[in-house]
Amino acid sequence: MRVRKKPVEVEIERVEERTEIETREGVVVAEPGEYVVIGVEGERYPIAPDILAATYEPVDEAARAEWKRRFED
Question: Where in the chain does DSSP place strands (E)?
Fold first, then answer.
């Protein structure tokens, strides 16, 4: 059986300097240029820009403009 994850809106923050992030799995390092996803329960985890662009999409026009600037230019 195949299933699809329900759509959920999350926040993202761009990492500007090497940062240690406390995740559910322990401390993980996020490097400059990566992003931190803040989940619906406040959980935080790093994600590479290419994975972010492949698996997430902007939710409104303002986010689309920022997305285009960061990932499509």
Answer: 11-14, 19-23, 26-30, 35-38, 44-47
